[in-house]
Amino acid sequence: MGRVLISISKTLFSPSHASAQLRLLPIRATSRGFRMAAEPISSSSSTTPSSAIDFLTLCHRLKTTKRAGWVRREVQEPESIADHMYRMGIMALIASDIPGVNREKCMKMAIVHDIAEAIVGDITPSDGIPKEEKSRREREALDSMCELLGGGARAKEISDLWLEYEENSSVEAKLVKDFDKVEMILQALEYEKEQGKDLEEFFESTAGKFQTELGKSWALEVASRRKK
């Protein structure tokens, strides 16, 4: 009897469930009938077309989930999480070279730093969730996404970049955190001008929190344009 290979992939897209994947070994005829063995997919396996598309489909939520701060302020047609991360990536692309800073790493970190929000959503200080709990939920979500991707080098890179940003443990992380704040106040300025809103609270929330000279200079430029 010929060998039959069956693959089953089941994904649960929720904060409380991790994706599950099984690889079923070939069905074989035995004296007692048919027998099928199963084992978990190795975390070192490479990204398959199936796992890549599963992962990208989940990331679609980043394009459709609106940033919660703007929604609360009743901004019309607010940006999505993906919109925010994309412009941060552009910031890293156009930033001047800084000694000791890997700009390519900054670009990658910018498009990864909020990726767990595809599962947990955009948790903000207004939600009243402690920082430690927010981090725990996002870490759990990230682990599920990396498992969905099939483990391996790409999943590890995403996980490492996210953790480095979360822990603010490198010069790249500090710069990307500044980009995060600059992008927010620039977006606030644009909404103020386009929709006649007063979004002072967003500027106040970032005051004195920039860690790099580049971040400080860009923030000052945004503030100067707000006064005009």
Summarize this entry quickly:
This protein is mainly alpha-helical. The protein has helices at about 50-65, 70, 80-95, 105-110, 115-120, 130-150, 150-165, 170-195, 200-205, 215-225, and strands spanning about 5-10, 20-25, 30, 35, 40. Helix content is about 55%, strand content about 10%.
Give an account of the 3D structure.
It is a single chain. The protein has helices at 49-64, 68-72, 81-94, 103-110, 117-120, 131-148, 152-167, 171-195, 200-204, 213-226; strands at residues 6-10, 20-24, 28-30, 33-35, 38-40. Helix 4 packs across helix 8, helix 6 (131-148) packs antiparallel against helix 7 (152-167) and helix 7 crosses helix 8. The chain is mainly α.
Sum up the structure in keywords:
single chain, about 230 residues, mainly alpha, 3-stranded antiparallel β-sheet, two-stranded antiparallel sheet, 5 strands, disordered N terminus
| Beta-strand percentage range | 5-15%
Uncertain runs with pLDDT below 50, 5 residues or more? 1-44
Helix content: 40-55%
Gyration radius, in Å? 22 Å
Q: Give the mean pLDDT.
A: 85
